[in-house]
Each structure stands twice: as C-alpha cells, then as structure tokens.
C-alpha cells in the first residue's frame, strides 16, 4: 500500500507530505481547494501524462514521490515486472516534470520510464475518477473489466500483439500488390539501362584517356615532324647532344676528386645522357603508335562518342555511371525479390489469420467461463448498496463486420455488454440504456469491489464515487468502501458526511492565502475536529449543536458496523 506521498509545486500545492493509513482513509474539503491536484499526483505515480501547466506558478518543476510497502505475492509480481528484487519490502517511485516539458521517472533511485511505471501501476495503485463511471457505459471498458476479473489480460495482450503483426503483414502485401504494375514498369526500365551500360563496358578514367589519345592523333603530322627535328639535334653524330654529353663525361673522368663542381658536372652529363637515351626510345615507340590505320581511329572516336552520349543521357559522369550500373542491378534484384516474396507473404498471412482465429476462440471461451461468476459477485455487492432487487447479467456477442477485421479486433472477437435492471418486472437492458447516475455509481463501486478481490492492487483511490447519490445511499457506499478497506488500502475523496464517517482516518484539504500567495495543505482531523468537519458537511456551512450530535451518532454507528 501507499505509505508516504510527497508533492511539491503541483497546482496550488507548495509542499504536502501525506502518510495514509491502511483501511479506508477519507479526504474532505470544499470545492476548489486543491483535491484534484492530490489525485493528479497519484495519477503521476501510475505513469500517466503530466502537463507543464500543472506546475505551481513561479516554480521551475514539480515533483511527486510515493513510497509503497509491498509484501508477499504483490511484491513478487512487481519484482517480476521490474526484473529486480523489492528491497526491505519498500518501493519508491518518483516523477518530475519541468517547465521545458522534460519528464523524469525513477524507481527505487534508478532512472526508468513512464512506460515501465504504467506496466506495474495496476499492481500498485488504481484511481477511479468521477468520470470513470461514465466510461463504464462503453463496451471496451466493460470488456476490460471482464478480462481483468478473469485474469485474461496476458492472453488478450498476446492476441493483440499477433493481431497488429498480422495487420502490418497485410499492409505490406497490399503495398506490394498495389505497386506491382509500377514495379514491372520499373523493372523493364532497369533492364534496359543495365543492358545499355553493360554493352558500353565503362571503365573509370577511359574518357580522359581517349580524349588525350585522339588529340595526339589529330596532331600526328606536326608531332612526328617535331620528333624528327628533335632526333636530328639530339642524335646527330657531329655535335649531337648525346655525343657532346658523352665527350664531356669522358673528358672529366679522373678529375672528380679535384673539386666537387667537376664531380657534379660529370655526374650531370652522365645522368642527362641516360635520360635522353630513354626518352628517345619512348619517342620511337610513340611513332609506332601514331602510325594507326583510319578504321582504328574511327573506332576510338565512336567509343568516346558513346561515353559522352551516356553521360548526357543519364546526367552522370563516367565514374558515376559505373556506380549507377551497380545500383540498377541491386534495385532490380530487390524488385524481383519482392515479386517472389508476395506468394510467400500471402500464405503467411493466411496462417496468421488461422492462428489468430484459434487464439480468439480460446479467449472467447475463457471469457464465457467467467461472466456468470463476475455478474453474480457484482449483484451480491449491489444488494449491500441498496439495489437488492437489481438484476445484472453479461452478454458476449460476436463483433459486427463493420468493427472487425476477419471477425476480430485487437481485443479478440467479442463485444461484452453488462445488462442491468434496477427493479423486478423491468426488462434487463444494456447498462447505458437504463442506469441512472446514482445507479451507475453503485454499479461501478460494486464492480471495483469485485475486482479488488482478484487483481491484487494494493491501493484504490476513489474520487467522489458517491456523486449523484443521496445521504442514505451514501452511508451504504461508505460501508462498502470500508469493507473494501479490510483487504486493501482505500483513499476516498468525498463531499458526503455519510461516507466520511466510515473512514479509519480523515484529512481535510485546506486552501490558505498569505500575502497574495495561495497554498493548499493537508491537516489530519482527530476527535472533536473530525466531528466538527462532518457536522459542517451535514449543514453545508457551519456546525451546530444538532449537527454535532448527529455527526457523533454517525461516527458511532460506523464504528459499530466495523466492530460487528
């Protein structure tokens, strides 16, 4: 159960420390004093979304800290969900929200997420708000109550995961089918591109080499004339450069040791002669290359034209075209793979639907097995709440085609409706059609009492569950809340003194204004203070001698029921 709650800078709350007891604990106070922020803090402990506008004016962040005492089976369940042991039977949950919108969550001092907190929240604390009775009119809420009562949530979650996976598979198949024509057209285009580029046999750098080679060939005659002129000057026997360099090298031989300059000159002459001889051999080979026939020359020109045409056609350089060819091959392989994958995916979807249907049938059978038990126990609780003549049944129906896919949705193949009749002789009809506001509140309380015995939730928080009921029924509701408190911690926000008198302890939420600063705080009511509070709730303004006597009588009567 919740043994400590700290709230800082949330709404009108500057700082509140609250140590609730076991059993039924009631919170009272005038409308608008800040009870809603206390409830909001408990919702934050459940991992619910927290708004930045809830942060107290002037503060940069709000913080909520809850300490839960967990033992036995409940501690084991929470430990299993978290994957860590519960030390000293105590679990600490902290939530923090900042003005910038950042939210932090810590569990036992370790950073965690709101998602993890929402997973363990049903074991720690349940908040039943004022509007929750209205949600009971929805079929989804009623189905959720049935599954929680029957411990079928794991089975339903398994079905839900498989259902979403099947829907995703169907969406992929539809996408493949709808784009099949486009993929075929794309495949034809890619095949044409691949054929054209492969026939071109592109090699990086080939265009530049061809352009240089053709430019050389186009200047063939002038190049050959220049080479011949250079040969005569370099190789001419009388006064040729090579002979001159050779003579210089020979003349200086033997004088190198006399001066470094002589040695350098002889070495330079020898090196230059070697370079020139090598260059002349290369030039001789070039002359052979330049002696090309017109057919080969035309072939080179057409090759260059092909490369330039492809570059212009595909708006890519020669090097990029080489990469483009590989990309086209990979894309074509992917398209072909998709086409081959389609029949396999369709067969897989059929298997998924068959397995889903079998699982939904099992889930439906399990639900049918617990309906009678749920409605019977709930009807017994209604007897204590002044609806002893009421009849409560549950109807499980197949989903309509318009609200299902292959006869199912993510929750199974069923719609569940709680049907109700408040008086003998009246037909049993869906709850939404026949229940008044007060009756709906009592049905909700009866269901929560029934569920409390099977879900194991440690703390139940009721926010004005007594709305729309009178004083006489309020006393019955308070008695039922006290009864729930025998096995669970129950926190109840109420405006009815007939409910408040059943509390084991009572705190009043108070709002004060000091120097134009408004603050909300809690004060525990003991003995005469509690009597005065209940008396004021009876009168609606202030306590009188008569209302004080009546308050004492109500407290005594509630205590006698507890001791009975």
Weakly predicted, low-confidence segments: none
Q: How large, in whole angstroms, is the Cα Rg?
A: 45 Å
Structural class: alpha/beta
Helix content: 55-70%
Protein described:
This protein is an alpha/beta fold and 564 residues long. It contains 19 helices and 15 strands. The strands form 3 sheets. It has a 6-stranded antiparallel sheet, covered by helices on one side. Strands 8-12-13-3-14-15 form a 6-stranded mixed sheet.
In short:
The protein is built from 19 helices and 15 strands.
Key terms for this structure?
six-stranded antiparallel beta sheet; alpha/beta; 15 strands
Helices and strands, with pairings:
Layout: E1 2-10, E2 13-18, E3 24-28, H1 35-45, E4 61-69, H2 72-82, E5 90-98, E6 103-107, E7 110-112, H3 114-124, E8 125-128, H4 132-135, H5 139-149, H6 153-178, H7 180-200, H8 206-218, H9 220-235, H10 241-252, H11 260-290, H12 294-314, H13 318-384, E9 391-398, E10 414-421, E11 429-430, H14 431-434, H15 437-455, E12 459-463, H16 471-484, E13 489-493, H17 497-500, E14 505-514, E15 517-525, H18 528-539, H19 545-563
Helix pairs in contact: 2-3, 6-13, 7-13, 8-12, 9-11, 10-11, 13-15, 15-16, 18-19
């Amino acid at each position: 159960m919740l043994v400590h709650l700290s709230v800082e800078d949330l709404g009108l709350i500057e700082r509140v420390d609250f140590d609730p007891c076991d059993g039924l604990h009631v919170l009272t106070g005038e409308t608008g004093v800040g009870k809603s922020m206390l409830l909001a803090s408990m919702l934050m402990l459940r991992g619910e979304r927290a708004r930045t506008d809830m942060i107290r004016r002037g503060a940069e962040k709000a913080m909520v800290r809850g300490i839960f005492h967990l033992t036995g089976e409940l501690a084991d369940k929470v430990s299993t969900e978290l994957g860590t042991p519960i030390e000293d039977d105590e679990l600490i949950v902290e939530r923090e929200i900042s003005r910038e919108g950042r939210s932090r969550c810590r569990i036992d001092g370790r950073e965690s997420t709101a998602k993890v907190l929402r997973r363990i929240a049903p074991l720690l604390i349940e908040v039943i708000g004022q509007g929750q009775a209205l949600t009971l009119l929805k079929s989804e809420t009623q189905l959720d109550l049935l599954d929680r009562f029957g411990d079928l949530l794991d089975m339903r979650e398994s079905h839900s995961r498989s259902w979403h996976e099947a829907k995703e598979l169907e969406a992929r198949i539809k996408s493949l089918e709808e784009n099949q024509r486009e993929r075929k057209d794309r495949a034809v285009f890619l095949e044409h591109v691949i054929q054209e580029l492969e026939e071109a046999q592109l090699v990086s750098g080939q265009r530049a080499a061809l352009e240089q080679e053709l430019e050389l060939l186009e200047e063939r005659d002038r190049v050959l004339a220049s080479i011949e002129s250079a040969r005569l000057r370099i190789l001419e026997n009388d006064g040729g450069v090579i002979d001159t360099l050779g003579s210089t090298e020979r003349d200086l031989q033997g004088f190198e040791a006399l001066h470094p300059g002589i040695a350098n000159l002889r070495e330079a002459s020898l090196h230059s002669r070697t370079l020139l001889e090598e260059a002349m051999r290369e030039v001789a080979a070039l002359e052979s290359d330049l002696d090309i026939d017109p057919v080969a020359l035309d072939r080179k020109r057409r090759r260059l034209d092909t490369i330039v045409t492809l570059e212009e056609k595909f708006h890519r350089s020669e090097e990029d075209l080489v990469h483009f060819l590989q990309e086209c091959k990979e894309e074509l392989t992917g398209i072909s793979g998709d086409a081959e994958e389609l029949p396999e995916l369709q067969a897989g979807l059929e298997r998924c639907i068959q397995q889903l249907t079998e699982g939904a049938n099992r889930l439906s059978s399990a639900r049918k097995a617990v309906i009678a038990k749920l409605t019977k126990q709930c009807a017994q609780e209604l007897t204590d709440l002044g609806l002893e003549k009421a009849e409560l049944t549950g109807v499980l129906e197949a989903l309509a085609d318009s609200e299902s896919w292959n006869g199912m949705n993510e929750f199974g193949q069923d719609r569940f409706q709680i049907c109700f009749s408040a008086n003998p002789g009246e037909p049993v009809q869906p709850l939404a059609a026949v229940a008044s506001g007060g009756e709906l509140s009592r049905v909700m309380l009866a269901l929560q009492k029934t569920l409390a015995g099977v879900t194991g939730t440690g703390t139940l928080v009721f926010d004005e569950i007594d709305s729309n009921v009178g004083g006489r029924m309020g006393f019955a509701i308070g008695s039922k809340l006290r009864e729930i408190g025998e096995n669970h911690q129950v926190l109840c926000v109420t405006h009815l003194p007939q409910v408040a008198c059943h509390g084991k302890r009572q705190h009043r939420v108070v709002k004060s204004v000091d120097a134009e600063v408004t603050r909300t705080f809690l004060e525990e009511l003991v003995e005469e203070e509690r009597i005065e509070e209940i008396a004021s709730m009876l009168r609606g303004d202030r306590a009188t001698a008569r209302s004080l006597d009546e308050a004492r009588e109500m407290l005594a009567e509630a205590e006698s029921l507890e001791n009975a």
